[in-house]
Specification:
With about 170 residues, this protein is α+β, with helices and mostly antiparallel strands. It is built from 3 helices and 11 strands; from the N terminus they run ααβββββββββββα. The main subunits of complex b-c1 are: cytochrome b, cytochrome c1 and the Rieske protein.
Length: about 170
């Protein structure tokens, strides 16, 4: 009887060990499927150097498959302390370039200093605020962080948190 009980307890311990190791491997595999791919993580952040921009210049870049408008304001453009991004004593408008009405891409008209949407005639000023037409709200501001003269899109810095708290 003693040998069959020792065999039985050995089989129980061996089965428990195999089940525990299999459970650990399953949890590790599940965690790997939940984590975003490295290519997705890399696409989440975009760094833009603002030092070379001239006053009145509009730069359009792509971030997460969306157009981002970066406009360096000149002296004739109205400043908006609640929406302007200040980098190196210069004011910038940084907005997602999709109309808040139907999601089309507005065009910038420098002579009029407005962003105009062709579909329904919505207009936004140089700070991205809706001033005419059907858009229900201003252009959205993407999360950003300022590092010297560089703007890092996709990361929430203290400037962005302050801006969203005031809005």
């Amino acid at each position: 009887m003693a040998t069959s009980e020792s065999r039985r307890s050995f089989m129980g311990v061996a089965f428990g060990t195999v089940a525990a190791v299999g459970g650990v491997f399953s949890l590790v595999a599940m965690k790997k499927t939940w984590d975003p791919l490295p290519s997705v993580k890399a696409a989440g952040f975009t760094t833009v150097d603002l030092s070379g921009m001239q006053a009145g210049e509009l730069r359009t870049i792509e971030w997460r498959k969306k157009p981002i408008f970066i406009l360096k304001k000149d002296a004739s453009m109205a400043k908006d302390p609640k929406r302007d991004v200040v980098v190196d004593n210069a004011a910038y408008t940084v907005v997602i370039g999709l109309c808040t009405h139907l999601g089309c891409i507005p065009a910038y008209h420098p002579s009029e200093q407005i962003f105009k949407c062709a579909c329904h005639g919505g207009e936004f000023d140089t700070s991205g605020k809706n001033i005419f037409g059907p858009p229900p709200r201003p252009l959205d501001i993407p999360p950003f962080k300022i590092e010297g003269t560089k703007l890092v899109l996709g990361e929430e810095g203290p400037e962005y948190k302050q801006m969203t708290k005031e809005a």
